[in-house]
Amino acid sequence: MTRPPTTSGVRDSVVARAATPHPVAARPRGRRVRPGRLGTLAVFLAPAVVLFLLLVIAPIVVASYASLYKWNGFGLPENFVGLDNYSRAFGDATFRGDLWRGLVLIVLSLLVQLPVALGLAMLLNQPLRGRSVYRLVFFAPYVLSEVTTAVLFTLVFSPNRGLGDTLTRLLGADAGTIFADPDTVLIAVFLVISWKYFGFYMILYLAGRQSIPKEIHEAATVDGAGAWQAFRHVTLPLLGPTIRISVFLSVIGTIQLFDMVWVLTGGGPIHASETMAVTMYQYGFRRFEVGYASAISIVMFLLSMVFALFYQRIVMRRDTEGALTTQGGQR
């Protein structure tokens, strides 16, 4: 009968194998792409490149050019004002308020929306009865469009007619004015946004949790870790890449928030729920100050780009390096 190897024997065997040099296949340097393959790549890449140039690069260039003029959108821009539109934006109390309200929504999303989604994902990962139904119910709001969601909540909290207003009146409260009060409208908008998007983040976290091998949690249980300790020291670190992606999506989405706010409140009352995108729309399509609206759009673009570059460079650096290493090892 063969005796199983001892722990020291296994360790020595692994060390010996790791120390043994392995021949590395020399990779050809400067591989040249065959003309036929180059043509195939060009054919398949051309539609994507054309769409990218027309729908991304061209609007950025046009908006950058228009932001340097005082222009109403008709004819060609002629009244060159340089950076006056940008200085006007940062000197405008409404636009500075947009920046502040955007920051408030970002902080609320990071402190409330994402943790709630993470908690529900962990709960629905447990062997609960009917958990598939719960997942479907929580994810269903994300399927609705932003406009549909906004119209739905407008009807629900319609004064004297909406179901939400009727129920809160029975409880002695008045929810019919929740979107009309400057002190509560931003919180109300955030609650609607959270209702719409928390299901998406829940599914994202749930997928990340289910990708963690069960053996790791079983080993933690064998070592005496409780539920909280396993979550704190095993689940949460391994969910790091998923959490970082969710934070990135939440911040970028908040910077560009428009359609839901526009349908819910139109930015009112008295700019209390207005965002940068709503201000841009107001000036560009209501007041026909296209040059100033273009400047606001460029500021939004720069904020998004700077955050994306900084976040990917500093926060997601290890995730991207690991992905590139994995791809290089699979070649």
Note the main sheet. none
Count of DSSP-assigned helices: 15
Strand content: under 5%
N- to C-terminal separation? 43 Å
- Give the proportion of residues in helices: over 70%
Question: What brief labels describe this structure?
Answer:
72% helix; single chain; globular; 331 residues; mainly alpha
Commentary on this structure:
The protein is mainly α and 331 residues long. It contains 15 helices and no strands.
How are the secondary structure elements laid out?
Elements: H1 7-19, H2 35-66, H3 84-91, H4 93-124, H5 131-143, H6 146-156, H7 163-170, H8 185-210, H9 214-222, H10 227-238, H11 240-255, H12 259-264, H13 276-286, H14 290-315, H15 317-330
Helix pairs in contact: 2-14, 3-14, 4-8, 4-11, 5-8, 9-10, 11-14, 13-14
Please give a quick description of this structure.
The chain is mainly α and about 325 residues long. The protein is about 70% helix and about 0% strand.
